[in-house]
Amino acid sequence: MRKEFGTVDKDVWRRLLIREEWDELPASDHTRHLSTCSDCMQSLLQFFEVQHFLQYEKHPCFHVAYYSADIPDRGLDLQCGMYSIITSAKKGEGIVIGFCPWCGTQLPVGLTSGSSGLGSSVLT
């Protein structure tokens, strides 16, 4: 996403996407797909919101990166390398999930040790 959409005028694109003005978008395989896939359109709108602070490439997919980020729509928590659906306002309370609820990408479900990546913690 960053490669193709990181430098576009997000306000212009947002307006074109919301109004479904597909003929105004630059022609490419990605933009043609956007006209038929509401999930991808939603993800692109979300990308425009977080592109400057969210390192989504460090997550299994964009969806879990976005929904576990520090944003108002947050519905997932990332702790010890595992993603969970938040079930309580208290941090750390949730149900660990093994697949992305949006795209089905497999997610890590075992505790990670060491400092090898995002959300990992050293276990003692």
In summary, what is this structure?
With 124 residues, this protein is of the alpha+beta class.
Structure description:
This protein is of the alpha+beta class. It has 2 domains: 2-50, no CATH class; 57-124, no CATH class. The protein contains 5 helices and 3 strands; from the N terminus they run αααααβββ. Strands 1-2-3 form a 3-stranded antiparallel sheet, with no helix packed on it. The termini are far apart.
List keywords for this structure.
disordered C terminus, 5 helices, alpha+beta, 124 residues, 31% helix, 3-stranded antiparallel β-sheet
Runs in which pLDDT lies below 50 for 5 or more consecutive residues are 115-124
What is the H/E order?
A: HHHHHEEE
Silhouette: elongated
Q: How is the main sheet built?
A: 3 strands, antiparallel
Q: Quick one: how many beta strands?
A: 3
Structural class comes to alpha+beta
Strand content: 5-15%
Number of domains: 2
> Kindly, what is the distance between the CA atoms of the first and last residues, rounded to a whole number of angstroms?
38 Å
Strand order of the largest sheet: 1-2-3
H/I helix tally = 5
Helical amount: 25-40%
In angstroms, what is the radius of gyration?
16 Å
Helix and strand arrangement:
Elements: H1 2-5, H2 10-18, H3 29-34, H4 38-50, H5 62-67, E1 76-79, E2 82-86, E3 94-96
Antiparallel strand pairs: 1-2, 2-3
